[in-house]
Amino acid sequence: MKRYTVFSIAFVALMAITACVKDLDVLPPDPNIETSATLYDDESAWKMVLAKCYAGLAVSGQQGPAGKPDISDIDEGFSTYLRQYWCASELPTDEAVISWNDAGLKDYHNQNWSSTNPFITAMYNRIYYQISLLNEYIRAINTKIGGLSPALQDEVALYRAEARFLRAFSYWHALDMFGSVPFVTDADAVGAFMPSQISKADLFAYIESELLAIESELAEPGTNEFGRIDKAAVWTLLAKLYLNAEVYISSSRYTECITYCKNVIGSSYSIDPVYANMFKADNENSNEIIFPVEFDGNNTRSWGGMTFIIHAAVGGEMSAAAYGIDGGWGGTRTTSAFVNKFDDPSGATDKRAMFFTDGQNLEIADQSTFTDGYAITKFTNMTSTGTGGSNATYVDTDFPVFRLADVYLMYAEAVLRGGTGGSISDAVDYVNELRERAYGNESGNIAEADLDLDFVIDERARELYWEGHRRTDLVRFGLLTSDGYLWPWKGGVATGVATNSRYNIMPIPSSDLGANPTLEPTPGY
């Protein structure tokens, strides 16, 4: 059972970016409809709405697993934040292909998408739905906090800091995937207006300032309820922002990256002794996971999220029951380019090599054939003790957004890129700690001479695959679209080809360009 149950609560006054309600002071005639005007009469609602803010990363709407979607114009099962983020982060890369032929889905791996792609549009809409939800919650707190009891004021102030983190987190996704985007916060008046477009530099500065502002207001590392933000999550996001600063603002911030990595490394989080346990149905017990998106087979039901990630990876000759689920969807596999990053893909040497190969072809002749490409068995709905999760359809496994191993590898990369305040010897020690876990001994350890950027990008793949990092990593290394690294079906060609550099970023959807004439199209689109 999860230590923090996600609630779903409907509240109406989520005046999104282009809300058209003229009189926001008018209450609905039906007294059974809950709005922000009455919702907070119940003091427990503050935490329930915070839970909805967290659940916005996991579920698809106001009723699980489907029936009252948050966003429209796409099948509700596809529409969840995590499902869209996983597809946008993994499918354009060497780590994942998908067999399904839904219109626009294969455009990801083929790197030939356009501003009308329905999946890119869904990702964009989900980001801005989440931001509008958080803006409304923060606005409500700012309006009402003075009338709360002193004890509740302290509690709600913590909720506000967590909500500001979640908003910065979504704006980081907007910056990372879309670049210059529309910008609106709780400070903007609610009503119908056209939000202006913020530059990448200004959005970077905003995210940075928000994270620095809330750092002191959050719980100490490891002391909050599981699933909720603490200071280590802020430090990790700052480290990721700084690591990618050259991409975002053409200015290196590697020293700052090292500073915040060291904060996390010196905190209460620790490396899990068993790699596989972080991707199982009871992974809430892992002290390595800094920030998860929570799932629970009984209380957090969705056709997206981890239900998608686990079910879609099972097909062919794989036994669904072996992964704690009631059926495989035969969708996602990986490419030979990724498999070949392991000297021994059997998993007997490096235990991170989690592939199902029986009946699977290493090479992909047809992306639509599940048995072309090795299947990945990393995520499962089985517990660390070998029992199934609470529900064979809707899984219990949480998604590890941030974990300590990523911080170790960010530290190593920032040192190699010239950041100060760290050392190569410490970087090698951190890398070897991960490799000793993977190998079970020191046989996979590296020396200082082995640690270079080529090693780091491959080690990030081996350690972090299918955790939503790969697209960002390849962009930072100049490898997503260039001919410096090819993999099967990159660019829609079996052997892989370089693609247009515009695909390093995704386009603002044409639907939003049409709705907001103040926006400029993403360069190249």
Task: Sum up the structure in keywords.
single chain, 525 residues, mainly alpha, Serine Threonine Protein Phosphatase 5, Tetratricopeptide repeat, two-stranded antiparallel ribbon, two-stranded antiparallel sheet, 37% helix
The overall pLDDT average reads 92
Q: Provide the CATH top-level class.
A: Mainly Alpha
First and last CA, distance: 47 Å
Structural class: mainly alpha
Q: What's the CATH architecture name?
A: Alpha Horseshoe
Task: Lay out the secondary structure.
Blueprint: H1 45-55, H2 81-90, E1 97-98, H3 107-110, H4 118-144, H5 150-178, E2 181-182, E3 197-198, H6 200-214, H7 231-243, H8 245-249, H9 254-265, E4 289-293, H10 305-312, E5 332-333, H11 336-339, E6 355-356, E7 375-376, E8 399-403, H12 404-416, H13 424-439, H14 453-464, H15 470-476, H16 510-515
Antiparallel strand pairs: 1-5, 2-3, 4-8, 6-7
Helix pairs in contact: 1-5, 2-4, 2-10, 4-5, 5-6, 6-7, 7-9, 7-12, 9-12, 12-13, 12-14
